[in-house]
Amino acid sequence: MREWQRVARLLALGTPGAAIFAVFFLLPLVMVGGEAFSDHGAAFARLAQLDLFWPGLANSLLLGLAAGAISLAGGLMVAWRLSQMNAAARTALLFLIALPLTFSGLVVAFGFILAFGRAGFVTLSLERLFGVDPAWFASLVYSPTGLALVYSYYLIPRVVMLMLPVFANFDRVQLAAAESLGAGRWRAIADVLVPQVLPTALAAFCLVVAVAFGAYGTALALVGSQVNILPLQLFTLVSDAGTDFPLAAALALVLTALCTAAMSVGEVVVARRQETVDDR
After folding, report:
1. PROSITE patterns given for it (predicted)?
2. 111 and 104 Cβ atoms separated by less than 8 Å
3. Which H/E stretch holds residue 52?
4. DSSP of 205-218
5. d(CA 216, CA 107)
6. Are residues 234 and 251 in contact, defined by beta-carbon separation less than 8 angstroms?
7. Residue ranges covered by each domain of the chain
8. Is the pLDDT of residue 176 over 90?
């Protein structure tokens, strides 16, 4: 193939993606950035002086880390079990596990309200069977802890999708070899399995933390303004008539920067792991 033909093919393949990236990411980002700095950066100073901003930032970080930790633990167990199944069973279960990824945050929140709300099926069943106070049980769903668990519902499939190839390609003979040389079961896992899956697990954790940090639909439907997190603050600033748009744009940039930073940590870990493998 001639050089100009190779260049033409690369341009033909890359142009649609570049156009989508420019229209749906770069252009909105430039517009938001322009709005945020329209008053020469004073919006960021006003944002830092808001009484709700710093508690909201702390709550968002705690919520993201909690949902990420729960999702990582659940996703690792599910992916490990799936990797031990035959291909047919794994494909069927993987289809079911991936279904939550197709649901919007509002649909997920509505489903949890129907199941675990004050008049939910699970809540009323627990009241009849064990005498559980429905008001107390339902309040758990509408708390930050409940919000972290609800987030995990659609974050665990993301962890499973990332970790399943790692577990499926892991050679379990290495564990048997370590145990035959005198290592205990947990020592073999710590010395053989963990180093191989840790980079991908960290990348998956960073991904779900970033998703949980920026999510607002589920939180809005479940807790409304009862929980102070940054995405709900942004929603309030954008939805209020006559709002301070530079302030909303500044908050949007802060959210984008924090989510990007979390994702970057995961990418750096995976890149360093790949460099180590290539050097061997």
Report:
1. ABC_TM1 (PS50928)
2. no
3. none
4. HHHHHHHHHH--HH
5. 13
6. yes
7. 38-279
8. no
